[in-house]
Amino acid sequence: MIVSVHACGELTDLVIERAMAAGARMALVPCCHNLTGADLGGLQGWLDGPLAMDAARVARLRSHGYQVVTQLIPEDITPKNRLLLAEPAN
After folding, report:
1. Which has the closest alpha carbon to 86: 30, 4, 31, 25?
2. What are phi and psi of 3, to 5 degrees?
3. What single-letter DSSP state applies at residue 90?
4. E strands, the chain, where?
5. pLDDT digit string (tens) for 48-72?
6. What span, in angstroms and rounded, lies between the C-alpha atoms of 60 and 77?
7. Neighbours of 72 (CB within 10 A)
8. At 89, phi and psi to the nearest 5?
9. What does pTM read for this prediction?
10. Rounded Cα gap, residues 73 and 38, in angstroms
11. Among 24, 28, 56, 72, which has the highest number of CB atoms less than 10 A from its own CB?
12. Chain-centroid distance, C-alpha 66
């Protein structure tokens, strides 16, 4: 299991890539979204940039056979509160 909390910017994507390469389950709390050149999945017209980026990450994981669950952590714990849980589908 790969766990990443507040992996800034592209580090979240690196963690996702490494977890997928290992076929590992993951729990991530993305942080500090760098939108320059980012894959926003064409959603930037509907969603703010960071949410579009995280939605594109979910889509990428699902396209690689991962089951994904998303949750929100209470904002009084952290303002960067999107939790992404993913595991390879069996």
Report:
1. 25
2. -120, 130
3. -
4. 2-8, 26-31, 66-72, 82-88
5. 999 999 999 999 999 999 999 999 9
6. 28
7. 8
8. -70, 145
9. 0.93
10. 24
11. 28
12. 12
User: For residues 14 and 48, what is the distance between their CA atoms, to the nearest angstrom?
Assistant: 22
Give me the sheet containing 66-72, strands edge to edge. 2-8, 26-31, 82-88, 66-72
Residue type, 83: L
Return the structure tokens found at 3. Answer: 């766990």
Pairing of strands 26-31, 2-8: parallel
**Strands, DSSP E only, in 9-81?**
26-31, 66-72
Distance between CA atoms of residues 90 and 76, nearest Å: 36
User: Which residue carries 């089951």 as its tokens?
Assistant: 67
- Determine the Cα–Cα distance for residues 53 and 47; give it in Å rounded to an integer: 9
